[in-house]
Design brief:
Structural class: mainly beta
Number of strands: 35
Number of helices: 1
Distance between the termini: 48 Å
């Protein structure tokens, strides 16, 4: 190695000396300076569908735009691959690019355009970011029942174009009675991404990794005995009714370190960083107890932190909180009521009929009914703080259905976090009610078809004012509408969002947001 080094040094010095001495033999060769324009900073395409149409403009200081002097190449490279692992995927050897991108997995890439100048043997290059997506990468799963009662899933793709991709669920098991669809979001470990289908008969994990033209089905290899290892008696097979955290706005999960699972009779909580597995359930009042209380189907939590989780105990008619922070929790504890509180955590004569968590405000909501007076309902608003176990009671209202039209007969409820407003549906009608002022409820729209789904939708657009309504009738089948609340403190107003009306054959029961590249 040393000999090679000295030899190279000697040659370099000799060449330098020759150049200095022989000044008369030095000739300046003009370089054809190339400018490349016409490329955007970034592009987004759906694999196999979107045509990349790019027409660069070339200008050389000597050869101008004479194509006969140049050779062209287009290729893409994975953005996170460097060094020896850097592999070019060739696209074309033409000046203009006009083609779809096929055969590449969804993800972030760099698109390169190179120009080889034959007169100087110099290569020039321009680059742009390239996001490769599939129609199933970003959008909403649409869960519902087909005309024959079997479960179906469509996908409302919002990747680059907004389009409904029909029938992405094979349903080889012939499942019927769609109830819920739960997507965890993606983690740094894609094996922990999970999609849970809940039907009348039970819950099932669905294979959810996307590739071009993916069609999903129940994954028969993913059974609950592979994940749950309690020494206590729990209902088998398990029916998952809630799971947290969920998909967040930025394409990941709200929390990467652990997961809570709520089944019909048990709640499990554990870290998932080393793989997904669960021990004994924690819906009990002592870590040594084997007596489980019956939980309501919705867990209450703060989307941004999971220091504490609240459940509703259907046996004792009480809201209860985990006994410790996140993964330290082994059981639940009763929370204290004071005589001056705006609502009670525990009330023998009331029970819960609806619960919801708001991803924007961090508030949790519950609709309660009086067990002895069918005309009386109640709204509770509370919040589990980011870094505290002290659950705060924020607001309460008593609703008498003799003056609030059909509130007790509503098929769906959802809460607008910016104001004290609850939206509810009765048949084909959408109503709004300000429970703080107690003003008469307003009929906001009559869709002419049964409302089958209603929910605020703050995640995909990170907007607290958007909500979704789905309807169904035998003639028009399923319709999905996206609306916006007009943030007017004096009245309840809604506005349809332009070009946000979609059709499906399904009787929709759930829209679940997905943003994952795998």
């Amino acid at each position: 190695m040393n000999i090679k080094y000295y030899l190279l040094s000697f040659i370099a010095c000799f060449c330098l000396f020759s150049c200095v001495e022989d000044e008369g033999s030095y000739v300046e060769i003009p370089v054809n300076e190339i400018s490349i324009s016409g490329l955007d900073d970034s592009y987004a395409v759906i694999v196999g569908k979107t045509v990349l149409d790019i027409q660069p403009e070339i200008e050389g200081t000597i050869a101008g735009s004479d194509d006969s002097n140049y050779e062209y190449k287009w290729y893409v490279c994975k953005s996170d691959i460097t060094g020896d692992n850097h592999v070019h995927t060739f696209l074309a050897d033409t000046k203009n690019l006009n083609q779809t991108i096929d055969g590449l997995a969804p993800g972030e890439y760099t698109l390169y355009f190179t120009l080889f100048d034959k007169s100087t043997d110099i290569e020039w290059q321009s680059a742009a970011g390239l996001s490769i997506e599939t129609e199933l990468m970003k959008g909403f799963y649409i869960l519902g029942d087909k005309e024959d009662g079997s479960v179906g899933i469509d996908f409302l793709s919002i990747s680059t174009d907004t389009v409904v991709v029909k029938d992405i669920f094979t349903n080889s098991m012939g499942l019927q009675g769609a109830e819920d669809l739960i997507f965890s979001g993606n983690y740094y470990n894609k094996a922990l991404q999970t999609l849970q289908l809940v039907t009348k008969s039970g819950s099932h994990r669905i294979s959810s990794f996307i590739q071009e033209g993916s069609v999903f089905d129940v994954d028969p290899t993913q059974k609950d005995e592979y994940y749950y290892f309690p020494t206590m008696n729990v209902q088998r097979p398990m029916k998952v009714v809630d799971m947290f955290p969920r998909q967040g706005t930025a394409g990941t999960s709200w929390c990467r370190s652990y997961r809570g699972i709520l089944t019909e009779d048990a709640m499990f909580l554990n870290s998932v960083t080393g793989g997904e597995s669960y021990g004994n359930p924690i819906n009990r009042y002592s870590r040594y107890s084997e007596s489980l209380f019956r939980p309501y189907k919705t867990a209450f939590y703060n989307f941004y932190s999971y220091f504490g989780t609240v459940l509703y105990d259907l046996d004792s008619e009480a809201f209860v909180c985990t006994n410790s922070y996140a993964l330290s929790a082994t059981n639940f504890r009763n929370m204290t009521d004071n005589s001056t509180d705006i609502f009670p955590w525990h009330h023998d004569n009331r029970t819960i009929i609806y619960g919801e968590n708001d991803a924007k405000s961090g508030k949790s909501y519950a609709v309660m009914k009086d067990k002895s007076d069918a005309t009386k309902f109640y709204i509770y608003v509370f919040k589990i703080p980011n870094f505290s176990m002290n659950v705060s009671k924020l607001a309460a209202a008593e609703i008498n259905t003799s003056s609030v039209t059909d509130f007790g007969n509503a098929s769906h409820y959802t809460f607008y976090g910016n104001q004290s407003v609850v939206l509810y549906s009765v048949g084909s009608q959408l109503w709004g009610y300000n429970y703080a002022t107690g003003a008469a409820p307003q009929m906001l729209n009559d869709f002419g078809s049964e409302i089958t789904y209603l929910r605020m939708e703050p995640i995909s657009s990170s907007s607290a004012i958007d909500f979704v309504v789905a309807t169904y009738d035998s003639t028009n089948k399923g319709k999905i509408y996206k609306y916006r609340m007009n943030d007017n403190p004096n009245t309840i107003e809604i506005t349809p969002i332009n070009n946000c009306e979609w059709s499906t054959e399904l009787k929709v029961v759930k829209l679940e947001y997905r943003y994952s590249s795998f």
